[in-house]
Amino acid sequence: MASLSTTFILLLVTVSASVSAALSASVIEDLKSLKPPHDFNTTILKNCQHNPSLRYCSSSPMDLDEIFKSTIVASHLCNESKNPNCVESFPKIDLQNDPKMVPLYLSFNFFWKYCPLSILAIDLSNNSLRSNFPVDVLQCTQIQALDMSHNNLFGDVPIESFSPLTNLTLLNLSYNHFSESKISDIPFFKRFNSSSFLHSGLLLDGKKFRIKAVLLLVGFPIFVILMVCCLGWLCFRRPDFLPRMLRPKNRFTPAMLKAATNGFSKKSLMGKSESVDIYLGTLRDGADVRIEIYRGERHPTLIDECKILVQLCHKNLVNVLGWCNNRRLKAIVTEWMEGENLEMWLMGSNITPWSHRLRILMGVVEGMCYLEEWPEVGYDLRTSSILLSNNLEARISRFKIRDQSSSRNRKMYKFGVLLLEMLVNRRPEEEFERGEAGFIEYIRMHYPGNLQKVIDQKMELTQNTFDQAKQAIGLGLMCTDASSNQQVSLGQVFDIMSRAYQSCRVLASHNHERLHSERGKGHRRMQSR
Ligand SMILES: *[C@@H]1O[C@H](CO)[C@@H](O)[C@H](O)[C@H]1NC(C)=O
Ligand SMILES: *[C@@H]1O[C@H](CO)[C@@H](O)[C@H](O)[C@H]1NC(C)=O
Ligand SMILES: *[C@@H]1O[C@H](CO)[C@@H](O)[C@H](O)[C@H]1NC(C)=O
Ligand SMILES: *[C@@H]1O[C@H](CO)[C@@H](O)[C@H](O)[C@H]1NC(C)=O
Ligand SMILES: *[C@@H]1O[C@H](CO)[C@@H](O)[C@H](O)[C@H]1NC(C)=O
Ligand SMILES: *[C@@H]1O[C@H](CO)[C@@H](O)[C@H](O)[C@H]1NC(C)=O
């Protein structure tokens, strides 16, 4: 031991003697500015002759620069570690509670490579070191004590690198975050008890480790299975609980519909026919929907049709939201319309002025124009199938997919009947012996001279609006006239209706101005074509 210290002194004396004036500067500055003295090679050789076990003696070729730098670091570190007399000995590295300096010293790997043999204890505890285990430190194989407790070291402890430290009797790795591993099987660590590894992630106790391992081995698969089951349950039964991104669009499951209708409760049942039950449901997002549940095998193409209908999107069409295609349950989900249908509206006792009827008709025409782009979608135009929103926006419902009977002419005919029905306010099917044909004949008989008799009184027409209504009846008759080639196109109907609608609005706003000396309001977007 004495000879080792002597060697160390020899070296330090040499360095200190030549550079003592500059040593007060910081370590890094010293490392940059100081150069080995001329006779440094001689000093080293002498030292090695004296004590061949010195670390730098076995390195070949000798890097004199590196060896010199390591002596500079050594002299700083010895002083920093509060060794009583650094000129004589360097027994311990004490960098406890010194978080600023520790990373710097750990970065000088040349120092650790030539770790002075006199060092017997290293204390790096309580420094919040956030890194892997500083393996370089273990090159000081002669040490007897190593304290790395109270840091944030993580990763694996380099177990093999410990085995050369045969004289190590005090080890403290407590309070770190090493990867959990079992060290009880490694002979080297048998000499330490658990107080060396408190809260370090390392486990001396084999039993505890085994329990943890078993728990993990059994627990993790169970956890995964549970998660998969849970996800599967969500996907197949309640996809509305999934995040919006993962939710299948338009697909409703029986469980979703059941939840929306309080288990298909009587209170939610709004209507019933021989093949369809109609429910009012509330989805998880709060939207009210109409759920039509089909019984029996009568609708084999229902779902295919729905897949087309969900693509339709227009303010004058009832929005089809999706479908449920389950072995036990076939259903179509559409938006819920709060208002009444056109038939009920016409039959009501309120005054229903021409301008309101025109607004509804305009909506129907706009919806029909949009549907021109969907030749495969037919629809059943009648007063009972037109739903009205609260602000009298018409919504066409009851679509038919690939319905051969609804040709272009047929559609115009049905529109003509609807138009006439709205002006006359009589039900062709119920009030006329020959149905629609009788109804049209009845109007034709009174056109154009005797219209006062047939026009609905509830419109309260003025002179101006009477002319418009008369024109509209003319248009309706043209649309229903299948015999001649006079039948008008939808485009023409749109132009005529929108002109009438505009002028009616102008009239209305003039009246309004006269009455209230202020400009009439109420904007209506016309669909541009
Ligand atoms: C030391 O290095 C010097 C040149 O820097 C050289 O002249 C001398 O011979 C060397 N001494 C030994 C013992 O290698
Ligand atoms: C050693 O540290 C003391 C303060 O602890 C300082 O005054 C002295 O200059 C240092 N010596 C060297 C050689 O760095
Ligand atoms: C560890 O360091 C903190 C400050 O960094 C200090 O408050 C605490 O007393 C130290 N603990 C020990 C055991 O030295
Ligand atoms: C351990 O200590 C003994 C006696 O002090 C010494 O001979 C031996 O070299 C030391 N072992 C290591 C690895 O330094
Ligand atoms: C663990 O070892 C240390 C010294 O290495 C000793 O002071 C302590 O009493 C031991 N603890 C137990 C529980 O054996
Ligand atoms: C290691 O350090 C912790 C915390 O400072 C302490 O409780 C424990 O007794 C130490 N273990 C040993 C073996 O010194």
UniProtKB/TrEMBL annotation:
A GO cellular component entry from the record: membrane
Xref: InterPro entries: Kinase-like_dom_sf (IPR011009), Leu-rich_rpt (IPR001611), LRR_dom_sf (IPR032675), Prot_kinase_dom (IPR000719), Ser-Thr/Tyr_kinase_cat_dom (IPR001245), Tyr_kinase_cat_dom (IPR020635)
Location of the protein in the cell: Membrane
Keyword presence, Metal-binding: no
Broad class of where this protein is predominantly found: membrane
Membrane-traversing stretches: 213-236
Alphabetical list of SUPFAM superfamilies matching this protein: L domain-like, Protein kinase-like (PK-like)
Signal peptide: 1-21
Domain Protein kinase positions: 264-529
Annotated protein name in UniProt: Protein kinase domain-containing protein
Organism: Prunus persica (Peach)
